[in-house]
Amino acid sequence: MIAGRARFRYIKKLQRAAGYRLPDAAFHPANLEAITGSMNIDGLDPGTRDQVMRFFKDFLDCKCRDSPLCGCPERKFVVCLLELRELGLNHKEISRHLIDEYGIELFPADILSFLEDSVHLLEAVRSVADLAGEEELVKKTDRHIREISR
Predict the structure, then answer these.
(1) Element at 20 (helix H, strand E)
(2) Looking at the DSSP assignment, which residues form a beta bridge with residue 8?
């Protein structure tokens, strides 16, 4: 999954704030738990603190009983990538946006591959919806395919 390729650019700062070593994978369970619990976010510089707070607000804020290990953060990240593409950003611009907003590094080639895979998946959904006579779903998938593929 694409969320597994996302890395925190400022992991050393997060490790100092947490007081222990953390993996660099942004959606690793240890990082998710540290950000939602034990990390001294106030000890971070203002720019990094803002990025961590946006990461928390956009990906970790859910009401699931198993939060933050419920899978919601990864799903929200995937939706974020697709929405950025549908807003017109290309894979390089999405990569820069992730760095600026969240301090997350993700290679543009990984984003491009993810977007291509998403289109193939949507095409399969469209085919099944067409066979099942679900016209509304066919229209929705067509719209998303167009927006991602442009």
Answers:
(1) none
(2) 104
Q: Contact 22/5 with Cβ under 8 angstroms?
A: no
- Structure confidence by residue, pLDDT tens digits, 88-128: 999 999 999 999 999 999 999 999 999 999 999 999 999 99
pLDDT per residue over 45-63, tens digit each?
999 999 999 999 999 988 8
Q: Quick check: 46 and 138 in contact, CB under 8 A?
A: no
Least Cα distance to 2 among 112, 125, 88 occurs for 112
- Judge whether 104 and 77 are in contact, CB under 8 Å: no
Q: What is the C-alpha separation between 20 and 22, in angstroms, rounded?
A: 6
State how far the Cα of 123 lies from the Cα of 13, in Å rounded to an integer. 42
| Domain co-membership, 49 together with 90 | yes
| pTM summary value | 0.92
Counted domains in the chain: 2
Rounded to 10°, the helix 91-102/46-55 angle is 110
**Domain of 137, in residue numbers:** 112-149
Report the Cα 124 to chain-centroid distance in Å.
23
